[in-house]
Structures are given as structure tokens and as C-alpha cells.
Amino acid sequence: MTAPHTAIRVSEIFGPTIQGEGMLIGLPTVFVRTGGCDYRCSWCDSLYAVDSRFRHEWEMMSTDALWQKVVALSGGRPVMVSLSGGNPAIQPLGALLDRGHRDGYRFALETQGSVARNWFAELDVLVLSPKPPSSEMATDWAAFDACVEAARGRPQIALKLVVFDDTDYAYARDAAARYPRLPVYLQPGNHTPPRPGDENAPIDMNGVMKRMEWLVEEVTRDRWFDARVLPQLHVLLWGNKRGV
Ligand code: SF4
């Protein structure tokens, strides 16, 4: 039997598909979405992996069992594995990184930066996505600093910021100024996220694209030439659909 502290709480594993956001956009990947999050963002688009009401859908998996599933999905060919959530940083993933690296796989993890882990140093890519004011969450910058510090060395680190409005944009500028050496990726927020179990809920693509246009105008007006503005590719392709 797997010791509880080594079991990983998994919401879903799927792929290969492509990474839809940020610095790895377009890259083939297998997703491992863990269950549970220490945040409750107002516009969270993966509540089924956050809210404990959906915990009956989550599975406690050993590192071995999880890894076998990733290998099966990828046909045994090394691919980028995207660790997402929920907040994957609250799961014990260090052994998984060792296991996958031995097989030639790479790992990218995305987190809001609220919990630092020493195994961040073993990642290949760490995407830190602090949540702006529209999320109704408050950023603990000391915890965020600890995440950046924990990942010094091997991983590429990037900032990814979701922007809904002027206040979020100002927050994004502040966050980028705090970490001038980190590349910055901005994306327009989706104000029509799916409700759990309703993945066919229509998405206001027009509204999202208008926000993207506005974001491009802001960035260029401010001569913020280090920032990259990207849409969510999977949203463009599949709307709110889950598991793609
Ligand atoms: S941090 Fe991410 S997963 Fe957690 S509630 Fe916010 S958007 Fe959802």
C-alpha cells in the first residue's frame, strides 16, 4: 500500500495535446492535473480540480501508477509533462520528477506561487502565475519570492499573468517590475469560464478577443517591449471543453 505522504491527488491525466498558454504554447504535452488548491479565484476555469465537492472524482495515485499512465499516453516517447491543477505545488511530486527524468521526459509546472518546494529545482520549466486583483485573492510576495528562490538553477522560470482590466494590468506591471529578469507572458482573462460538469457552456470569444486587443494596445502604448501577449490557444480551438 502506498504511504499517504507519497500519494499524489490527481484530478485528471490526459494527452498528448498541445500546451495552450504561456512560454510553451503549441508544444505537445501530456497534462497531469492535480486535485486541490489553496486559492479560490473568482474566475477559476478548473473548479473541478479545486473545489472539494469534486473530490470524489479525484484519485490518490502512487508515483508509479501515475507514471505508467503518462508513459502509456505518450506511447513511451519522451514528451513535456505539464503539471497543473489546482495547485500542483501542494502535492508530493519530487519522486515523479526523478522517475520521469530517468526516462528522458521533461516537466513544466504551473503554480500561483503560494507554496515553495525544494523539488522546484528539479523542474525543467516553472511558470509562476500570481493572481491579479480580479481573482479576489491576495498575493503573498514573501511566499512568491521563496518559489523563485527554490527554482534557482535548472528550471527556466517565467511569469504568466491573466489580465481582465486596468487594475489587473497595473498589478501585472508591478509583478514584472519585481522580477525584471523573468520573461513575462500576458493573457486576456476568460470571463465565461466553465462551470464544473458543463464543459459545453458557451464562451464569449468575442469578448475575450476584444480584451486581447485592448491588452495589446496597453502594452504597445506603454512601450512594454519585454512582455508577450498571448491568447489561450486551447480556448480558441475548443472553447471551455475539458481534457483537451
Ligand atoms: S490558483 Fe488556479 S486552480 Fe487555484 S483557484 Fe486560482 S485559478 Fe483555480
Automatic annotation (TrEMBL):
GO molecular function, a single term: 4 iron, 4 sulfur cluster binding
Cofactor: Mg(2+); [4Fe-4S] cluster; S-adenosyl-L-methionine
InterPro entries in the cross-refs: 7-CO-7-deazaguanine_synth-like, Aldolase_TIM, Deazaguanine_synth, rSAM, rSAM_sf
Functional pathway: Purine metabolism; 7-cyano-7-deazaguanine biosynthesis
Keywords from the UniProt entry: 4Fe-4S, Iron, Iron-sulfur, Lyase, Magnesium, Metal-binding, Queuosine biosynthesis, S-adenosyl-L-methionine
Residues given in the record as [4Fe-4S] cluster binding sites: C37, C41, C44
PROSITE patterns: RADICAL_SAM
Role of this protein: Catalyzes the complex heterocyclic radical-mediated conversion of 6-carboxy-5,6,7,8-tetrahydropterin (CPH4) to 7-carboxy-7-deazaguanine (CDG), a step common to the biosynthetic pathways of all 7-deazapurine-containing compounds.
HAMAP family xref list: QueE (MF_00917)
Family: Belongs to the radical SAM superfamily. 7-carboxy-7-deazaguanine synthase family.
Subunit structure: Homodimer.
Name of the protein: 7-carboxy-7-deazaguanine synthase
